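ok trying this again, last paste got cut off
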Amino acid sequence: MKNRHKNTMPAEWERHERTIIEWPVIESLNWSEDHKEVMESYSEVINAIVNFEPVTVIVTEEKMHEARTYCNEKVEFVTIPYNNAWARDTCPTFVWDELGKIKGICWKFNAWGNKYSPYDLDDKMASDLLDILDVPSIQVPMVLEGGSIHVDGEGTLLSTKECLLNSNRNPKLTQSEIEAVIKEELNISTFIWLNNGLDGDETDGHIDNIACFAKPGVILIQTCHDKGNPNYSITKECLDILSKAKDAQGRKVSIIEIPNPPIRYYQGKSLTLSYLNFYLVNDGLILPIFGGDAKESDKQAEEVLHSVYPDRQIVKINGMGLIKEGGNVHCITQQMPSPRIAD
């Protein structure tokens, strides 16, 4: 299908103009008694990123003083009402137009398949933010969360059928119809579909927990070699799919494995621990680690990522405060790329 907009979603390793994060609200937390720990975790990420690039934090008027207390003075704040603090899924997907200028795509949001309510404020978050940033918006009437897709910037998109094709998102659309919309809006020509994401992921298998492009032609995947772990069969199948995959440029993709951390539970709930939920910033990488019985896999993950990104500074943060709420560093961030300078 011909792309009438000629817009392209840049890869996450392109230069950023800023990072956008939403300040946590106690009403939306799974475990409200952990509110202080969650605020500390968010601020740890915010204060790490602001050393590499500007950070814009979305916050309500009522929580402004609280957020300022926790955050570096270099952080910029904007006030918008919202329900949930997961910027990856409720903020715009930024694209370059044919001139290299920035536009924002506003997808529909339904709280990960109507799992939480209300979500009316989150559904209009992207539009509200673009108005404040004075960035042109593109309204797309299809449910899609940012954590469900990953691109290489060269026409290839990685996702899971468990999430993007789930009947709780767009029940009236077929796979080919969903692909057609994404091809049109993000300038995608090739889809690499994994069947499932990590076990226990309440987003229905977001791709940003299990696999991502490290660079063109290279995919990072978190794998499990413990046959007693539910992720063993899931990641084994993913490896088989990726071993046969080619990208939009016709390249057979290279695969780099990152170890799965040991299974961990919190209040009877299995946590979806993922090193793939890291976040690239300008000249850096923010990596969640989990400590305790995960110290060895923490170390291995850092070594793998250092080999992939030798020129980036890796900053480790405590990922436990975030994962108890169901996500991690990548889930709470959204990159706004810098405008592309024409050659």
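PB: full thing came through this time. The chain is about 25% helix and 25% strand.
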